[in-house]
Amino acid sequence: MLPYGRQSISSADVEAVTAVLGTDWLTTGPAVSRFEEDLSAVCGGHRAVAVTSGTAALHVAYAAAGVGPGQDVVVAPLTFVATASAAALLGANVIFADVSEDTGNLDPDAAKAALTSSTTVVAGVDYAGHPIDADPLRALAQEAGALLLEDAAHSVGGTWHGRPVGDLADLTTLSFFPTKNLTTAEGGAVVSTRADLDAGARSFRNHGLVRDKAVQRFPDEGPWHQEVHAFGLNYRLPDLLAALGSSQLTRLAAFTARRAEIHARYDAALADVSEVRTPSRREGAEPAWHLYPLRVLDGRRRELFEFLRSREIGVQVNYIPAYWHPVFADLGYRRGLCPNAEEYYSQQLSLPLFPDLTDADVDRVAALVREFFGHGE
């Protein structure tokens, strides 16, 4: 089965991880600090906090933003459920705002209409790797006294009007799952443009422990003493995985370029197939494409999915609207809430896309799509 996504591991990656095993630090050591510095370098020079997953990154970022009961968080629904559930776990009221019809990203007008006097965070998602429409989203968040969070699980290495992902929002969350644009096996990070948000993220990912005697309440307890002033969790990324991440980052530009080549090859091969829509890209966007989200028209998405799976092509669907999950339905969210997101989902099919995919593989997938719709050569 040709998967829709797969990690690319080199001998240098293996050597980087193996080297850590010979040191005194398997976690909380220098490889973590180095990885955070390496991430900062590709995210506009802003502070990065490594954590154990993309979901952990969202939880940490919302906590750093002070999200809690009585507060509203505006969220794009065309995303993995964690973008919304991480805020709900902190007690926030999640308000879903619809996406733009072309990119599947949070629509600024819909987000503005969803704002309330209790809005704390506006959370956009870089769907498939295409950056959010950052300028209007940042402006409306600031006007509402809220923070802009960019869920960039799909898009590290991309740019929007020349600015790198990580430089577009107050808080940016990254994911390093194996199918993502670089991997640490499991892992993620929070990038923040403000020192107070960075401090909050670092505290929450480490149980909320306070070791600085200048701010401890009982600094004379002893040299071993540490305190918890606010609850946190253990979301620390081990040095083993951080070392893998630093090694992967040396190839991020090559990964991004190859993903763009594959994306363009699909575009060219399917340009004349009227039964589908190829992905949109807005002027000023240089996406780090994580997905190739083909849109299948006339209600034939499932039929094509099953056809390709029967030919050993591991296509996938990304994602059902987050509020369709029973956990949100049980809270009163109803289908029909975000029509653009629901239509996008009804058409979406992710074709295989990863750096080691060969041109021959791309051509085979495209030929099967063409065959299905009667566009054989």
From TrEMBL:
Key word Electron transport present: no
Record keywords, A-Z: Aminotransferase, Pyridoxal phosphate, Transferase
Residues annotated as transmembrane: none
Named cofactor requirement(s): pyridoxal 5'-phosphate
Record flagged with keyword Transferase: yes
PANTHER family named in the record: DTDP-4-AMINO-4,6-DIDEOXYGALACTOSE TRANSAMINASE (PTHR30244:SF34), TRANSAMINASE (PTHR30244)
Family: Belongs to the DegT/DnrJ/EryC1 family.
Name of this chain's protein: Aminotransferase class I/II-fold pyridoxal phosphate-dependent enzyme
